[in-house]
Structure prediction request, 305 residues.
Amino acid sequence: MAEDLYSELGVSKTAKAGEITKAYRKLAKKLHPDLNPGDKAAEDRFKKISHAYSILKDPDKRGQYDRGEIDASGQERPEARYYREHAGGPEGARYRSSAGFEDMGDFSDLFGDMFTGARGGRRGGAQFSMRGQDAQYHLDINFLDAVNGTKTRITLPDGGTLDVTIPPGVSEGQVLRLKGKGMPGMGEGPPGDALVEIGVRGHPVFTREGSDIVVEVPISFDEAVLGGKVEVPTISGRVAVTVPAGSNSGQTLRLKGRGVKGKGDQLVKLTVMMPETIDDDLKRFAEDWRKSHAYDPRSKLKEQA
Prediction:
């Protein structure tokens, strides 16, 4: 286990909570086992940063760590326990290290009073039960898995795994709650939940605007002038779309019901692309056409300026 949790994340001991989270996410995206299959070193490093983050993100645990009450593994240090044996006192006597209380003797009476009314209901026979803590994780998924939904498995800091169902339409920063998949409870207390924060990777073609999916589609000079059918990618496959004659760059075609979860639409933004090489035939055509059809596409811009 790392000797210094701050060094493990590459932050200073005075780093703010946001800086710690940012540093962890940056490292997690680089070292996650799903992105480094078979890389044992990356997997071990991922476990270490995840453990460091699990302590430093919690204000109470971070305070205990900073004060030396727990070590880097999260275990209490014997010399920093809340109760300690009193030098020179009766054998077995324990004192609160910060208050100087008198000999408390047997703690069963003290805790019996504290937990009277818990499961068992009577002093001396009470059983203390507490719900387990929630466990927090961060999971980065692909764009199409976010909009279409998927099932995946994440590797936990302790080497275990957790199966996660991603519902269609999940968005960046959304937190999924997995009931009963957190830390175990105490006594007969139920386990906590696993809280999985979702990060969505960008896509080279698609972007998202609410429930709508946006894609930019280049069309040729002749397709813009004459119109025609062009093939367009969607989040569920490729479809043929009719480009109206006389289309311009920036014009948007709307494909109803092809957005996120079938609620939004897909917006097809057209961009007119000239050929890479302008040959003599196209030059002559443009010159002849200009002589009798010249127009100023910037006339409205001049009027408004």
